């Protein structure tokens, strides 16, 4: 059972509960990005089961006519079992997404997975003419070169600061360096993307202000993406005049995700606790 303390950050344990959360979000003018929680499977049967669950989810999103896409983690659909397992399941999920007109995002995991994830994105983005998106991380030193390569690829690119503790030979370790790299990347994307849409995956008010400034200068399409349970008031305010997506995790494996949110910011724990007590 999903504990009340976790339900600020996780929509539900099951698919109907997750879809009902999206229905409410859509009423507030916010689109959804559903993520079935799960990662690092070393048994191909687990990867296949979650890939099947994503296909069922895509069918349900279409049936309920929701403004919602999905986001999958490579290691959830088999990357730890082999590149071929991941690529086969991703093919199936993207096919279902194209059939049902549901956009498919690929989350980015640690730096050892970047090459295979970006190649898979590029292949599917060109094949579907932009029905998929990928996340790139500002803390990785390679990302500037990666997005230069993606300049004329259709689809969407989500820019985030990076959630993984990477070694210093590949990553910026200081917050100030990551913030500067993030600014540099989104500036480049606004200036240079010819076919893709920029997705800003950040809660940072300075980033959001800066993007609004860029948008006054460039016509590049863009959207904001924020996590469920984080700056929800700001999400609703932004949605009055921007495309806003809420990333919504769900599923029985909610416990480790919830603890990650609490660990990264003590205010999250207090917020969750207050919600339970009130
Ligand atoms: P930070 O740099 O952490 O904080 C900057 C400022 O933002 C803070 O000072 C505060 O003002 C505000 N803020 C931040 N968090 C909170 C909060 N909880 N409550 C109130 N204010 C807050 N990472 C990956 O590595 N791979 C992915 O695929 C990925 N997908 C993501 C998808 C989405 C939609 C989002 C939003 C994030 C994703 N991330 C992903 C996580 C990302 O890399 C960052 O770790 C995370 O977003 C924190 O960085 P930030 O820019 O939001 O703000």
UniProtKB/TrEMBL annotation:
MF-aspect GO terms: nucleotide binding; proline dehydrogenase activity
The domain of life for this entry's organism is Archaea
What are the Proline dehydrogenase domain coordinates in residue numbering? 19-271
Q: Which UniProt keywords apply?
A: FAD, Flavoprotein, Nucleotide-binding, Oxidoreductase, Proline metabolism
Q: Name one GO biological process term.
A: L-proline catabolic process to L-glutamate
Known EC number: 1.5.5.2
Question: Which of the seven top EC classes does this enzyme belong to?
Answer: oxidoreductase
Entry keyword annotation includes Zinc-finger? no
Q: Catalytic activity, per the record?
A: L-proline + a quinone = (S)-1-pyrroline-5-carboxylate + a quinol + H(+)
Pathway the protein contributes to: Amino-acid degradation; L-proline degradation into L-glutamate; L-glutamate from L-proline: step 1/2
Q: Name one Pfam family in it.
A: Pro_dh
- Keyword Aminoacyl-tRNA synthetase carried by entry: no
Provide the cofactor list for this protein.
FAD
Q: What is this protein called?
A: proline dehydrogenase
């Amino acid at each position: 059972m999903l504990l009340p303390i976790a339900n600020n950050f996780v929509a539900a344990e099951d698919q109907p509960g997750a879809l009902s959360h999206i229905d409410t979000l859509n009423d507030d003018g916010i689109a959804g990005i559903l993520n079935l929680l799960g990662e690092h499977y070393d048994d191909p049967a687990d990867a296949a089961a979650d890939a099947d669950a994503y296909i069922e989810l895509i069918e349900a999103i279409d049936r309920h006519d929701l403004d919602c896409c999905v986001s999958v983690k490579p290691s959830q659909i088999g990357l730890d079992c082999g590149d071929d397992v991941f690529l086969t399941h991703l093919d199936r999920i993207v096919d279902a997404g194209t059939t049902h007109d549901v956009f498919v995002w690929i989350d980015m995991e640690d730096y050892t997975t970047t090459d295979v994830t970006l190649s898979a994105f590029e292949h599917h983005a060109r094949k579907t003419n932009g029905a998929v998106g990928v996340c790139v991380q500002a803390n990785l030193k390679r990302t500037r070169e990666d997005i230069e390569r993606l300049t004329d690829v259709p689809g969407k690119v989500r820019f985030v600061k990076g959630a993984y503790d990477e070694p210093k030979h590949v990553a910026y370790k200081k917050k100030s360096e990551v913030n500067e790299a993030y600014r540099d990347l989104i500036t480049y994307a606004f200036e240079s993307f010819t076919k893709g849409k920029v997705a800003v995956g950040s809660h940072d008010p300075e980033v959001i202000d800066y993007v609004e400034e860029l948008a006054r200068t460039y016509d590049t399409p863009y959207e904001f993406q924020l996590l469920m349970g984080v700056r929800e008031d700001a999400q609703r305010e932004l949605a009055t005049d921007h495309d806003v997506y809420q990333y919504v995790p769900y599923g029985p494996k909610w416990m480790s995700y919830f603890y990650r949110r609490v660990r990264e910011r003590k205010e999250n724990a207090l917020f969750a606790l207050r919600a339970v007590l009130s």
